[in-house]
Write a structure and sequence with these properties.
This protein is of the alpha/beta class. It is 47% helix and 14% strand.
Amino acid sequence: MNSPLEILKKYWGYSNFRSIQEVIINTVLEKKNTVVLLPTGGGKSICYQIPAILSEGVCIVISPLIALINDQVNSIEKKGIKAIALTSQLSQNDVITAFDNLMYGNYKFLYLSPEKFQSKLIQEKIKQLNVSIIAIDEAHCISEWGHDFRPSYLKLKELKSLQPKATVITLTATATSRVLKDIQTNLEIENAIVFKQSFKRTNLSYHVIHTEDIYGRLKQIATKINEPLIIYTNNRKQTKEVSQFLNRNNFKSSFYHGGLSVSEKNSAFENWINEATPIMVATNAFGMGIDKENVRAVIHINIPNSIENFIQEAGRAGRDQKTAYSITLTNEALLSNSISKFAINTPTIDKVKNVYHHLNQYFNVSLGEIPTEIFNFSLQEFCDTYQLNVLATYTIIKILEREGIVSLDENFSKKSTVKFLINNNQLFNFLEKNTKQNNLINLILRSYGGIFEHYTVINETFLSKKLTISKKEIIQQLQFLNNDGIIAYNCENTGSKLTFLIAREDVFTINKIKKNIEQQNSRKTNKLTAVIHYLKNNTLCRNIQLLNYFNEDLNNPCGTCDVCIRKQKNKHSNTSLFLVILELLKNNSLTSREITSQLQYSEEEILNSLKILLEKNKITLTSQNKFKLN
């Protein structure tokens, strides 16, 4: 096996590259440094995975999100390829063992975050490895002008000094020309070959619909398309509300957000991918590893934070190259609320100082101290303690993480374990006096072996189903047995883990990053302004607007977006729409929503035409707010 095509067939199960992928793979195999900009769905991962499999040594992959790292590792391990992820859950001994495996165990990939790379131990161990390729994913994070700037990315240039012979490939799905230049400069990549694919998607039709009836329009769109959809909202609560609304109206949908448990996320994803529930309502937490080809439309019902985020999310539609739609439903109230929420949640220096002070207070960190402990962390409990806004506080903690002050592992997961602390005779005596726990203890003894000798992983949900009582009651009984010294019970922990990375210096700590915070706030304001301008501009082709943002020129309008379609219709006289409405009202009185649902015109056009017809006394409005012929 000695060709990229053979690797593609064996591990990925298909035999066709996109032309640009094949060129990039061959360039990396020729040991030339590359900067890759491929839009969402462009197949960036195989551009370094295939060369890594064909090369001697290990491929180091830098990725900013633990969830994304875990997704990548799971995906590649399913193909029978060995990979290791270095996360905050690993102890120092685990890290040493991991590097032993990388050196002697035929492992091909090492995944880690840019923050994890800052460990001196890890840097020393990387220096000892035989590294073939260094792949830096989401490389736009290295630029202050990128939509998710992380200062920790700036330190990744040290990778090249640790492994000067390794080939460097950087990858991003969203970057302006300025960001691409920053990637090369900040990483000190010399003579890099830049691969940049246009953001133009000829099969993706962009539509912005201004409507006061968001839910009604969702229902219309879902009815008309009747194929897999993704509906994005910025609000966790709304994901559930929209999903319930759709299900009540005979659609099948799931919802997904960052606050769900791992099992809930997996269930929602599987139901969507298998089309048991072909509509997914989600926050932007639903994005990693999403590669479903037949998504027919991506619908936004809240305002994305940036054009970059919008392009990434919209790009999940139509990966089968068939006609697909990006639809944004909005109105003046939503636009105004987005601006207000942005202002409220924008972290001022004083707010950042306040949260940092409370974090140290919450975990009893002394002035000048760097705690070695990794703390269990519940954001909700922390905010309740100090009466803080949850979303604003989360944003600030992510800033502190971005600036290398703390580390927040949001994907920590620890299973429940039990070990019996008494012998059989003592347990028998206990059961005679405490009959309430008989059923649970007997079930545990039947279900799990070796529970007297060592800690054993148990599943409270399984026990609750077997005994037909609630999981909460199972936990209460286990805690009772634990408190009585019968068992040692460690309850599962699926919360977050927080680590302090630098010594506590209070105000001085935040003052050092003050300029970075203010600059980032300014850039985020500009990005939101660009989104709102895009949504309000109904005179310039949507594709031209989006491509201009990424410094691309489109000579001719796309002809498929709502602006282009409206212009085509406006070439004809409005008389045709007047006649269609009058014909529709010949035998029925209808509301504006009922008229809109039956016509292929925009809501704005129909409402304007109804207004003119009312003024001309051709129609009238009934007491039930229905239009009828005069």
